[in-house]
Recover the amino acids of this structure.
């Protein structure tokens, strides 16, 4: 059943993308939207049936399906040819602006491209229809409610791709709700004036010490050993094109790198609940020419 749903999604996805392209040059073609409303509903039903655990890459590019026997391939090829023959009329396959219902832990919500563009985009850039569709798909696959600040669509500039991130609160809440969760601890690594590396709980360091990394341990009741993650500040810190740290990482180095360590460890400990979700502090942008404004409630 799962494989059939994935095959169905792979069939619908290219038609969906073709529709996006069509609407960019024919945004007022209401008849095409109405005629092909069924396609968007089918995409929504497939994603809902597949449930959690769908990656962003699969939503964007489709699912990898094991190669079928030759006989099956021939049948599919014949059906495809038949479908092609039937497509004698020039029919567009647009993104349908109908409501998208998402079942989240906090209740069912409705997302449409118009709602996303008008109320849920952070940053100065203009999001594309494709980016909006991917954001809705991410929220649907991971049951995220952006109205509760669980997910963010950020567009720093028109020249860079949109960034889609999850609030750190989602990581903590989903871990706590797991009956196997048994607590966590985290802190930072600093180098003192003598060049000695010291491990600290929390985020406390003094003048003359330099934050060089962070650590986090996550415990599960069914495991004899915790998941331990250590992250390097230089590798994870977000910088401007000049090589300088952006304002957040410059002013709050301990807080920022500790968040990265916690998110990474929680994701490893609870893969089923947090797979393919990342917080803003983990995302490196191609636009490093200036300080990046972040949603205030993520900090």
């Amino acid at each position: 059943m799962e494989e059939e749903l994935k095959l169905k999604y792979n069939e619908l996805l290219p038609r969906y993308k073709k529709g996006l392209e069509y609407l960019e040059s024919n945004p007022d073609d209401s008849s095409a939207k109405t005629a092909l409303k069924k396609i968007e509903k089918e995409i929504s039903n497939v994603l809902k049936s597949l449930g959690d655990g769908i990656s962003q890459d699969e939503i964007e590019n489709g699912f990898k399906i094991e190669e079928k026997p030759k006989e099956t391939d021939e049948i599919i090829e014949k059906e495809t040819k038949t479908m092609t023959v039937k497509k004698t009329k020039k029919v567009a396959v647009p993104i349908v602006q109908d409501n998208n219902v998402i079942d989240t832990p906090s209740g069912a919500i409705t997302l449409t491209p118009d709602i996303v563009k008008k109320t849920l985009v952070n940053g100065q850039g203009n999001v594309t229809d494709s980016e909006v569709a991917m954001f809705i798909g991410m929220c649907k696959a991971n049951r995220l409610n952006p109205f509760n600040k669980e997910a963010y669509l950020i567009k720093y500039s028109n020249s860079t791709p949109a960034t889609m991130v999850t609030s750190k609160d989602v990581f903590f809440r989903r871990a706590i709700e797991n009956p196997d969760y048994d607590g966590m601890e985290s802190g930072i690594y600093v180098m003192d004036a003598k060049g000695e590396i010291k491990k600290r709980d929390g985020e406390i360091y003094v003048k003359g010490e330099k934050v060089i990394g962070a650590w986090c341990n996550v415990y599960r009741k069914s495991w004899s050993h915790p998941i331990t993650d250590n992250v390097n500040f230089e590798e994870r810190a977000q910088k401007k094109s000049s090589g300088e740290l952006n304002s957040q990482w410059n002013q709050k180095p301990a807080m920022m790198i500790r968040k990265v360590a916690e998110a990474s460890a929680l994701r490893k400990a609870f893969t089923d609940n947090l797979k393919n979700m990342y917080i803003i502090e983990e995302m490196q942008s191609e636009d490093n020419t200036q300080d990046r404004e972040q949603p205030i409630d993520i900090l």
Remarks:
- The chain has three domains: 2-86, 100-166, 168-285.
- Residues 2-86 form one domain.
